Amino acid sequence: MDYDRFSTVEKETAPPNLKELKNVAVSYHYTSSIPLAVWLRTSSRILKHAEVYLSQGVTDQAYILYTRFIDLFAYHLYKHPDLTDLKRQKDSDLYKHYLSMKAQLPKLMSDVEKLNDVLKKRHDDYIKSVKAKGKLIQREREERLKEEATEFKRSMLLNEGNKDIQDKNAPASDLNDALLAKKLRSLSRIRLNNGQNRSRIQKTTYPILSLPHNNIDHSVPQLNDNIRQTSKENKMTPKQITHRAVNFTEKGIPLRTLFVPSNLVDEFLKIASRNTKRKLETCGLLCGKLNRNAFFVTTLVIPEQESTQNTCNTKNEEKLFEVIDNLDLFMLGWIHTHPTQSCFLSSVDLHSQNSYQIMLNEAIAIVCSPDKKFHKHIGVFRLTDPPGVDVISHCTKTGFHPHNEKNLYKECQRLGINNSKTGHVVMMENLSFETKDLRK
Q1: What is the pTM (predicted TM-score) of this model?
Q2: Which one of 30, 93, 202, 280 is separated from 179 by 20 to 30 angstroms, measured CA to CA?
Q3: What is the pLDDT of residues 133-170, one digit of tens each?
Q4: Residue at which a domain ends, from 203, 234, 265
């Protein structure tokens, strides 16, 4: 896929320092009410995502995810209540999975230390370059002012010299007239002191440096060559073009843009049509790639599932995740139908969405209400953060149940090019995708 046509050049900004990155890394919602199996699956995705970031040279995001993985195992998962029972079943696949992931900690900690050095050097180098540019600008300014002052002084000396010559050669009557004219000019300057004598001011402010003189150095300072060289080096090649994050969570964490093929929903509704006629829900997973700081949905996966009028649960999840891992895809969210209901997130949907969003802040839920009696047929949602993610993460209820808290989720589809702040999800035409139906 040609991602360049969706790209924008990201303005150079200061790289975050280590303290900022560490704060982001540990700013996630952990609760032991979420089963250990879910946390282990989330941890696997965190490592997978970190590896992708590292392969693309996005070292700050890789650092955040590696640090988060370490934090999870070092401070939380070893105390998870599910682990007590698993230790009694030492041969269980889940316990083996836990041990194998925990065994990676020493190497990951070593890798994080190396990334720590890389990121610190990058930040320090940026600060040094900013200071160097500041000094360079100041030096150029001083050189420019010096040249202007020298030229002004030269022009004044030339004028005075010409006047002296004229005065010496002039008759007595002419001298008197010259003195009178000089006084009149002096009076005129006093009257026009408040900016009326614009031509005089402009000459002083912008001296003409058209003729070379022996006492003026007209060579370009050597440092200017460095500026031109730096400018050439800073010109971004196509591989360096990135998408600038313009959306943020409620607590200020950046949300990268997520591009969804505009015809994906129609394709999904065709697949779901048989269930829809029987008033049964259908669900699918939105999977894709990270490219230059933006996500692209490239694959619609239809898992094995059990459906009712109001719910849809995936089956054989091991096979599902194996397929996603083999394709090296990010889980970017999910899509499901409401055959008999309007377009919203139910309490069950909120918990499902939370399981995606704790893995990836940008993860979304697309809800389709195909029945013509509903005014709104498509909704693109995410949990608010806060309060949504925190409330749902700490909710231990199952099934349909009320949540008294308000504003737990919001729409996040971008409403046009000129309304980028309305959401991080862009429905884009001419984006190709493939469908993998695991029910067959």
Answers
A1: 0.67
A2: 202
A3: 776 677 777 677 777 777 776 776 666 655 555 555 55
A4: 234
